[in-house]
Amino acid sequence: MELHRMWTEQCDATTGIRNAFGTQQALNYLIGEKLLDFIEAAESNDDFRSELPAFAARISTLFDSKQLAAYLAPTEAVNIPRDSSIVRCASDGPLVAEAWRQLEFAESSTS
User: Fold this and answer.
1) Can you give the pLDDT of all 111 residues of the chain as single tens digits?
2) Which of 30, 42, 75, 85 could hold 49 in an S-S bridge, CB 3.0 to 4.6 Å?
3) Helix, coil or strand: residue 44
4) What residue segments make up the domains of the chain, in order of their start?
5) What value, to the nearest 5°, has the Cα angle with vertex 10 and ends 105 and 20?
6) Exposure of 11 by Cβ count < 10 A (0-12 exposed, 13-18 middle, 19+ buried)?
7) Contact at 8 Å (CB) between 95 and 39?
């Protein structure tokens, strides 16, 4: 599957997840799982790395600024379980930090 198609389909699925299970579960799915998996792949694959800004920009169109800010805040502030993937990856390697910057930049550009 083409990378662009993969993350686009994941973003498209987020609307159904939000409708069925709520915003927090949609954020957990798209950012806490799919984006972090994408970042991990980008560590060793330039194709994934080159798609990261577009993926982050698309995510910022799916959630409002308050939702993204709350999710990207320290985990204690939003009650994300300590065993979740977002916490396990919170060592904030360079690609994780870059993805967060991309999300924040994309979100601020659309506000």
Assistant:
1) 587 789 999 999 999 999 999 999 999 999 989 988 888 888 888 898 888 888 988 998 999 888 888 887 754 444 444 444 443 444 444 555 666 666 666 556 655
2) 42
3) coil
4) 3-110
5) 105
6) middle
7) yes
